[in-house]
Amino acid sequence: MIVTTTERPEPGTIERARRLAAELKCACVPRGRNTLRKLGRLRPDAADGILVVGPDTLRFVRGEEPPLFYHPSMGLIRVKRLREGGDDGLVRAADARPGDTVLDCTAGLGSDSLVLSYAVGESGRVTALEASDVLHVIVREGMRVYRSELPDVDEAMRRIEHVKTDHLRYLRSLPDRSCDIVYFDPMFTKPVMASASLRPLRAVAEDAPLSEESVAEARRVARKRIVLKEHRDSGEFERLGFERGRMTDSSVAYGVIDV
Questions:
Q1: Where are the alpha helices (DSSP H) in 195-252?
Q2: Pair 255, 227: CB distance under 8 Å
Q3: C-alpha dihedral over 149, 151, 156, 160, to 10 degrees?
Q4: DSSP 124
């Protein structure tokens, strides 16, 4: 992988690109007049993708896949529903309340972290773990600068603590009963193929199945509830000991373990 900039970058953008390249331990390549396609041909290390840095944007491009960038997407729509007094399937499944501490073990694009952060409010806390270097950086940086024109939603984004780590390692490091809710949203064992928006995510996200050891550690760490999001036809709920809850739509279900 390499890091480059948008065309005709300002000095601040160049410095940002260098900082992110150092964090990701890859080369920072001047853009010059090159197209991304040409850079990909010139640099063998670009085969794993190119992170394009702008003044307030990040875009990850690899091959013919759609570019990956941060946008709250359905998370923003769900939070707007909560703002209007509506319901959310995850908030209900997690029994997330103001003041709760939440550990999102598989943050992905951060939509669920945003919803949970809004639900637990200023007195609560959400820690979002992500094992993928690229995904962690894109979401962390995106949530720092994205503006929804709703100050309370933007504040909920900024409150999330982002940690680049393997969730099992992180869970092992925590004391007993140290957070209220532990949440898992691994890549579905039965993919929702109709979701084109997940195609670039699948290219960079960790896709190992959730382990029994991770659930056992979550049982030790959680004070209130553990939640698993999976495809409605998945056998993961039964394999891992979750009680299957009500489905949220035609393909998604939440399982819970009360502790």
A1: 199-204, 212-221, 236-240
A2: yes
A3: 80
A4: S
Instruction: Give the span between the Cα atoms of 4 and 106, in whole angstroms.
Output: 27
**Any residues with CB less than 8 A from the CB of 78 and at least 6 apart, and which?**
88, 111, 115
Domains annotated on the chain, with CATH: 2-61 (no CATH), 74-258 (3.40.50.150)
CA angle, residues 187, 193, 199, in degrees to nearest 5: 65
| pLDDT, tens digit, 9 for 90 and up, residues 178-234 | 999 999 999 755 544 444 445 555 556 667 889 999 999 999 999 999 999 998 888
Out of 44-53, 174-183, 247-256, least confident range: 247-256
Report the pLDDT value the prediction gives residue 78, as an integer from 0 to 100.
97
> Which residues, in sequence order, are CB contacts of 159 under 8 Å at separation 6+?
117, 122, 125, 126
Helix (H) or strand (E) holding 245: strand 243-247
From residue 25, how far is each of 1, 18, 28, 85, 243 by CA, in Å? 9, 10, 9, 45, 42
Contacts of 104 (CB under 8 A, 6+ apart): 112, 113, 116, 126, 127, 128, 129, 183, 185
Cα–Cα distance measured from residue 105 to residue 163, given in angstroms and rounded to the nearest whole number: 10
Within 10 A of 103 (CB to CB), how many other CB atoms are there?
27
The confidence score (pLDDT) of residue 193 equals 44
